[in-house]
Design a protein that fits this description.
By secondary structure, the protein is of the alpha/beta class. It has 20 helices and 14 strands.
Length: about 500
């Protein structure tokens, strides 16, 4: 007969405080590890998640991760590097690979595997152990404010092979992939960074649509899955991150996932807005663990050390009160630690954009006959990037000016129609570059105001409805996708 003593493991014998620290993956400020972070890593903090604010270049990231490993081997180092519009390593230049929607448009799973492997090799050289990608979401709602080009497409049967291919390629060099945002964000019309989306789905619809790419990722051996802050009414009123039906019954029971469940950042509006930023953050940590989550992300948008302490205090109190079994916490700590396995050795080298350019060229979709009559005016119409993407270099003008001397690059807002029209009259050709024009009424108004001028439009986001004039769709705002469009025009 087994008794609690004979069933215990080294993990369950650890103190609740140590186990609580071991499941936390905070963000932090700066491009070197601050003293408080190094101390906590040495004492058993699960790991960190890197963002653009932590990145200068590959060499600096490699030095940063080595600094963390100098405090403790096995520390988890995560990053949000999806490629395309959501890049951290290339936050200062634009991504060296196209985004998922462009890869889906290229429709070559072997190419997707190769692109993901190139990214995995680069991340391994930088010392990253888990990449919070790919998105297994689908692009389903025209007014979707947050997924868009981050998904491989809208058809689950066509997107799923690319999700699986990406997982296979990324994990080739030992970097764990993370399929997100379970059960799928694409049909939501609210951004979970700021509000709590409700998916308009029945359980049957989820099985036929949203869950299909996640099942493909699991079959491909994905090592982690990120929970989304999304409500499915058939599962109750709590978002999937805090929902036992979602994480334990469906993800683990129905889909058979055995790896680590990572939460989306707990301070996001979908959770913190509903449950409070401070005491509520600790309570959300407890509820996520009880639901079946393993690693808890904190500090994506901002970080305060008090957040870590609040989570540890709440988790320890929940264990003491019998609300959170120690065995569940120990299981979560063990799964989190498994993501700290050092990736395959690789050297940091110059970033090679050739493969990414090949994929970006293959992804281009051309409507009509976009041909230049001479060096053009290029109007890059600036709109706010999504919260997930954040600010980074974007625009076609600099690329085409480099390839075609005499090109004038102009950055405009949607309200600059008069200035754009005046400039356009001085050039034989005009190129207008947009980012999901269909989601921005003022951009559509600008395009309508330019109807007296013949222009070529380059759309870098989800294409939206086809227009009347010549158009090039890149499906990505990455460096390589913009370069590919510029090459086509030049």
């Amino acid at each position: 007969m087994f008794t609690p003593e004979t069933q215990s493991t080294p993990e369950t014998q650890s103190s609740p405080e140590k186990l609580a620290e071991a499941v936390l993956l905070p963000g932090f400020a700066g491009t070197t590890a601050p003293d408080w972070l190094r101390r906590r890593v040495a004492e058993g903090l699960g790991g960190v998640v890197l963002f653009g604010r932590n990145v200068v270049d590959d060499e600096q990231v490699a030095a940063l991760t080595a600094q963390l490993r100098g405090e403790r081997d096995g520390v988890v180092v995560g990053i949000d590097e999806e490629g395309g519009d959501v890049t951290r390593l290339d936050v200062n230049t634009g991504s060296f690979v196209p985004g998922p929607l462009a890869l889906g448009a290229a429709d070559d799973p072997e190419l997707t595997t190769a692109v993901a492997a190139a990214l995995g090799e680069r991340l391994a050289a930088c010392g990253v152990t888990v990449n919070l990608a790919p998105c297994a979401d689908l692009t389903l709602a025209a007014e979707d404010p947050i997924i868009g080009v981050r998904a491989f497409g809208s058809d689950p049967a066509k997107a799923s092979p690319h999700v699986a291919a990406y997982v296979t390629g990324l994990q080739k060099y030992g970097v764990a992939a993370c399929a997100k945002h379970f059960p799928g964000h694409g049909a939501a019309t609210e951004d979970s960074h700021v509000a709590l989306p409700v998916l308009p789905r029945t359980v049957e619809e989820l099985r036929e649509i949203e869950l299909v790419p996640f099942a493909a990722a699991i079959r491909a051996g994905v090592r982690s899955v990120m929970s989304g802050h999304l409500v499915v009414r058939a599962w109750g009123d709590e978002p999937a991150t805090l929902n036992r039906t979602a994480l334990t019954d469906v993800l683990r029971g129905e889909l058979g996932f055995t790896g680590a469940v990572i939460t989306d950042a707990l301070e996001m509006g979908a959770v913190s807005g509903a449950y409070g930023k401070h005491d509520g953050l600790g309570r959300s940590a407890v509820r996520a663990l009880a639901a079946g989550a393993d690693a808890l992300c904190l500090g994506g948008a901002a970080f305060e050390a008090a957040h870590l302490d609040a989570c540890v205090t709440a988790i320890v109190a929940a264990v003491a009160a019998g609300e959170l079994p120690l065995e569940r916490l120990a299981e979560a700590a063990e799964r989190t630690a498994a993501l700290g396995t050092d990736p395959a050795p690789a050297k940091v080298g110059p970033v090679d954009r050739r493969l990414g350019l090949e994929a970006a060229r293959k992804a281009l979709r051309v409507q009509g006959e976009p041909r230049l009559a001479g060096p053009p005016l290029v109007v890059d119409v600036q709109t706010e990037p999504t919260i997930a993407a954040g600010p980074m270099p974007w625009g076609l003008g600099a690329h085409l000016a480099e390839l075609l001397p005499g090109t004038r690059a102009m950055t405009a807002t949607p309200d600059d129609a008069e200035a754009v029209l005046a400039a356009a009259r001085e050039f034989p050709s005009v190129v207008v570059v947009t980012r999901e024009a269909h989601r921005h009424p003022r951009v559509r108004q600008l395009l309508a105001a330019l109807s007296t001028v013949e222009f070529i439009r380059v759309e870098t986001g989800v294409p939206g409805p086809a227009g009347d004039g010549p158009r090039i769709d890149t499906f990505s705002g990455s460096w390589v996708s913009l370069r590919a469009a510029a090459e086509y025009l030049a």
